[in-house]
Amino acid sequence: MGITVGNKVVLVGTGAVGSSYVYALMNQGLCDELVLVDVNQEKAKGDAMDLNHGVVYAPSTMTIKYGSYEDCQDAAIVVISAGAAQKPGETRLDLVSKNMKIFESIVGDVMKSGFNGIFLVATNPADILAYATWKFSGLPKERVIGSGTILDSARLRFLLGKEFNTAPTSVHAYIIGEHGDSQFPVWSAANISGVSIASRLTDERREELAVEVRDAAYKIIESKGATFYGIAMGLARITKAILKNEQVALPVGVLLEGEYGHQNVYIGTPAVIDRSGVKNIVELDLDDVEKEKFNRSVDTLKGIQAHYWK
Ligand code: 6V0
């Protein structure tokens, strides 16, 4: 059976990230049909009503409703931003275990509907949960995409745009690796209109920028409790690339099968995205220092994975 056609999107988890994402979808007129699913059905219901009152001012009309997992049957994309938040005293691994259980149940219910589209996973730890979604769903790896370093790369491009008084769209730079503390910028490939960025920044400045990107989430959480607009735009960008068959390279979470000398791990790297999901992975030419950092990031992720899959 071929992949589901059409442009129906189902969002699972209409919290801060999920509701910001669907608001972005609506504003960009990216789909004709949108369904919101949440364990808190009242929240999904309220969001659907509220969003419907904006449709008249959106670029194109669309149907928005709250629903259930059965709605995934003919969905082109199921986006998951559902999950538990870290409680005081809880370790990161406790949180992983909790979200892993939630994902086993969500992905199982989505697949029971007959879903045959593409998963897009945003819940943290995003790389681990993308891997879990791939495992639980049994779908080909091309059809399970993690948000990877889409947000981290956007943060870097924003900062470099400011640094060089240039629009971030003209800054070509990637953060790759774990969506977490072991991520890093690929300075060897970073450029503005083909002009290398690395040679125009001191080592100290490059390190400052890398740290600013890495720690951005902590700063935002300190200020307002959560981060959601940036990731929402990133998820909308990936959604657009899929639904419009764009063949555009975006930094997302993908399963490595030999790329960068690694396999059996979901991690952030540029990949070409089209209507089939991940068309191909773009393997960057890393220098020796970057290779070392990438290996460390893989080790970090595999260390967590090892708790769940032998
Ligand atoms: P939130 O506002 O608490 O929303 C979570 C939503 O999930 C709530 O509406 C819950 O009711 C719902 N939910 C919980 N359990 C279930 C379940 N079993 N089935 C269905 N729905 C459920 O969290 P927020 O929206 O702020 O964050 C969501 C996730 O995104 C978290 O894991 C964040 O860490 C993660 N982020 C990921 C980013 C990325 O770059 N990938 C960036 C920011 C946040």
Describe the structure.
With 310 residues, the protein is of the alpha/beta class. Helices cover 41% and strands 20% of the residues. The protein is built from 9 helices and 14 strands. It has a 6-stranded parallel beta sheet with strand order 3-2-1-4-5-6, with helices on both faces. Strands 7-10-11 form a 3-stranded antiparallel beta sheet. Helix 3 packs parallel to helix 4. The longest helix is centred in the N-terminal third of the chain and has 21 residues. It starts with 8 loop residues before the first strand and ends in a 5-residue tail after the last helix. InterPro entries: L-lactate/malate_DH, L-lactate_DH, L-lactate_DH_AS, Lactate/malate_DH_C, Lactate/malate_DH_N, Lactate_DH/Glyco_Ohase_4_C, NAD(P)-bd_dom_sf. GO terms for molecular function: L-lactate dehydrogenase (NAD+) activity. Catalyzes the conversion of lactate to pyruvate. It catalyses: (S)-lactate + NAD(+) = pyruvate + NADH + H(+). This is L-lactate dehydrogenase.
Work out the helix count. 9
The global form is globular
| Strand order across the largest sheet | 3-2-1-4-5-6
* Unreliably modeled segments: none
User: What small-molecule ligands were found?
Assistant: ligand 6V0
Pathway: Fermentation; pyruvate fermentation to lactate; (S)-lactate from pyruvate: step 1/1
Binding site for beta-D-fructose 1,6-bisphosphate: 157, 172
Family: Belongs to the LDH/MDH superfamily. LDH family.
Function: Catalyzes the conversion of lactate to pyruvate.
